[in-house]
Here is the input.
Amino acid sequence: MDEREWLAERFEKSRGHMRGVAYRMLGSLSEADDAIQEAWLRLSRSDSGGIENLEGWLTTVVARVCLDILRSRASRREESMDAEAGEPAALGKSPSDPEEEAVLADSVGLALLVVLNRLSPAERVAFVLHDMFASPFEEIASIVGRSPAAVRQLASRARRRVQGAGTAGEVDRRQQREVVDAFLTALRGGDFDGLVAVLDPDAVVRVDEFAARPGGAREIRGAQNWARGAIAFARAARLMQAALVDGRAGLVLAPHGRLTRALRFTFEQGKITEVDVVADPDRLRRLDLAVLDH
Here is the structure.
């Protein structure tokens, strides 16, 4: 085995780790694979004999490439992470496919990907590397060009946004989560009685113009009236996940982590009294979203 083959073998052993890091930073599998391709190119041009910790070195390179991509997005004011057709990954790997990306997005957590997409590039890199991959602040500092103390603040700020600090108390949040889980289970199962059970009898459902069907009502009053029509959305509900929406338990529809719809709930005495169905891109951007833990 020559040196290049030996290096390629070691690179392949680190591919899974690099992909996990890059995907969480970028939310796009094709872009993550592009970042890995760039890491291979840089490795093949470097003096690999002087690298003591190859996986650590590759993680740093991938993180820097991802940071450049995130900053480029920010400079273009891109609000969505539309997947772009990328070059094949290193060593003959094929480009990502939608099914593969869907599986990966689900494993990471669609709600988490939505919230990560709202962080600044430096916050996202700091949070992913430290909170998700346990990288020391000193190493992250060299990647983002900040001091370790500044990186600690970046990660802390990102953590508060991801966790939704300062919102409803843990007890209220847990109760809301139980109601939302019951709502989602009933919706997915087309269970009319189950939906009515978690809705206040006088519940009001408001649907914005982007979410409403052509000619459909924008406001529905009464639990039974809305439940009759809601069960038609059982298939779409399978792609929904619970999340904190404006500080309360709600639901998001985010294929591959790209937010397309949110359900914002109002609760009273363990029942849902109001549902706000949001699909307007401007309104979606203004929502305060965070991950809702079990």
